[in-house]
Design goal:
The chain folds into two domains: 325 residues, ANL, N-terminal domain (Rossmann fold), CATH 3.40.50.12780; 103 residues, ANL, C-terminal domain (GMP Synthetase, Chain A, domain 3). The protein has a nine-stranded mixed β-sheet with strand order 4-3-5-6-7-8-9-14-13, sandwiched between helices. The protein is 31% helix and 23% strand. It has eleven helices and 21 strands. It is α/β, with parallel strands linked by helices and 435 residues long. The protein binds 5'-O-[hydroxy(phenylacetyl)phosphoryl]adenosine. 5'-O-[hydroxy(phenylacetyl)phosphoryl]adenosine (DLL) binds next to strand 7, strand 8 and strand 12.
């Protein structure tokens, strides 16, 4: 079995990739200018014409698109094909209530599913595998994306959707699933249940493809050990298609971005200046061959770093690090930038499970941050002194990571609500961003 789903393109030389991107970009800009009045107005305002875009070197002449544009143009304002040629919508929640709605032609669905098939092959899957997809189905892109990728690959696909954990475990055992696709938080919960119910010897999983939310290396190790699998990261967003915009390979060191379909840039989130590879900033995508919903220079708000270091898997496409947080999810507590992933790293490296809740509040103009953390069964004790000592140790560890004090409240095992999809880990009671 091949190590690649589409070897030629996945291992193309840099010159070949640039040639493909140049050609597709010129065509795409013309398509968007002619068919999307909303973006045409933005280009006109910036004084840039489609003829000015001759290669990817001209990309930075184009205006950015942001979530605000999506909200303003909702629902049809960024559509570049007649509705009669669209065959699907997918959707995700927006930042302030209005949902993001993305449209797909059949061509767009095919490309997207191929991207997901590439991810599955990179995780070691082939047509002999049994792929259990427990991302949500429906409007969320996770289920349909991985389902489509698994079909393209010819694997036996179990369209489980999220939730109903008893049924998930039953199918995992009875049908001997080999590849698990779900959010990392649900994978951690499934792993917990597998071990509690003594099913570890009865399952055949070898790999997991986990994404849709941030997770740490520590969480990866925990899931890998608990299920006896290799856990691969997968990234994507509804606006740009869904899962499979990028995916991890056997190296497990960054996710290859499908550069024949998407151009990635890193910008300074404040000034919009394009940063060189290797610098941390906001990830921006241009979709090169989507027909119905082709976003140019879309600001993801994900904070990330790109690397062009040669990868031993043979793939040549640029790699993105795990997103380090979102420029809009970043909490600013007493003036200090705090990313939930920093807190998770401290918790897991101190032996706690990734079941926690971060509560930020403001009283008399002073911010406070509380982290509720679940104890494991082994840690759980009636002795308050022991618990207080543990809490103090975590407060100190968090202080040295974050630079500010966070209060810690240890809670009994199984008291923090488990998530079947994306976990909600932050409650910000300050309501700083209400419109
Ligand atoms: O979460 C698509 C997806 C489904 C990706 C299944 C992977 C697997 P949205 O609901 O539009 O789409 O959310 C997109 O989720 O901008 C990131 O902030 C976050 N995200 C997605 N994948 C990862 C990841 C899907 N691997 C938003 N690591 C993105 C960290 C991720 N964050």
């Amino acid at each position: 079995m091949s190590k690649y789903f589409q070897e030629q393109i996945e291992t193309a030389s840099r010159d070949e990739i640039i040639a493909i991107q140049n050609e597709k970009l010129v065509k795409q800009v013309k398509h968007v200018y002619e068919n999307v009045p909303y973006y045409r107005a933005k280009m006109d305002e910036k004084g840039v014409r489609p003829e000015d875009i001759k290669s990817i070197d001209d990309l930075r002449k184009l205006p950015f698109l942001s979530k605000d544009d999506l909200r303003e143009a909702y629902p049809y304002g960024l559509l570049a094909k007649p509705l009669s040629e669209c065959v699907r919508i997918q959707s995700t929640s927006g930042t302030t209530g209005r949902r993001v709605v993305a449209f797909y032609t059949q061509h767009d669905i095919d490309l997207w599913e191929e991207c997901c098939a590439r991810a599955l092959v990179a995780a070691g899957a082939d047509k002999n595998d049994v792929v259990q997809v427990c991302y949500g189905y429906g409007l969320f892109t996770g289920g349909p994306g991985l389902n489509g990728g698994s079909h393209k690959l010819g694997s036996l696909t179990l369209p489980m959707s999220s939730g109903n954990t008893d049924r998930q475990l039953q199918f995992m055992v009875d049908l001997q699933s080999t590849v698990l696709c779900c959010t990392p938080s649900y994978a951690a919960y499934l792993a917990e249940c597998v071990n509690e119910r003594g099913l570890r010897d009865k399952i055949k999983l070898k790999a997991g493809i986990f994404g849709a939310e941030a997770w740490t290396e520590e969480m990866r190790h925990d899931i890998e050990n608990a299920l006896g699998i290799k856990a691969y990261d997968i990234y994507g967003l509804t606006e740009i298609s869904g899962p499979g915009v990028s995916f991890e390979c056997s190296e497990q060191e960054g996710m290859h971005i499908n550069e024949d379909h998407f151009i990635a840039e890193i910008i300074n989130p404040v000034t919009g200046e394009v940063l060189p590879d290797g610098e941390k900033g906001e990830l921006v995508f241009t979709s090169l061959d989507k027909e119905a919903f082709p976003l140019l220079r879309y600001r993801t708000r994900d904070i990330c770093v790109l690397s062009r270091k040669k990868c031993s898997c043979g793939r040549t496409h640029v790699r993105m690090a795990k997103p380090m947080g979102r420029s809009d999810d970043m909490l600013i507590v007493r003036g200090v930038n705090v990313f939930p992933s920093q807190i998770e790293t401290v918790l897991i490296s101190n032996g706690y499970p990734a079941n926690y809740l971060i509560i930020v509040d403001r009283q008399k103009n002073t911010d406070s941050i509380e982290v509720q953390v679940e104890m494991t069964n082994e840690m759980f004790s009636d002795d308050l002194n022991t618990i207080h000592a543990r809490e103090k140790k975590l407060v100190d560890a968090l202080k040295s990571m974050l630079g500010i004090r966070a209060n810690v409240h240890l809670v009994a095992p199984k008291t923090i609500e488990r998530s079947e999809g994306k976990a909600k880990r932050v409650i910000d009671k300050r309501n700083l961003y209400q419109n």
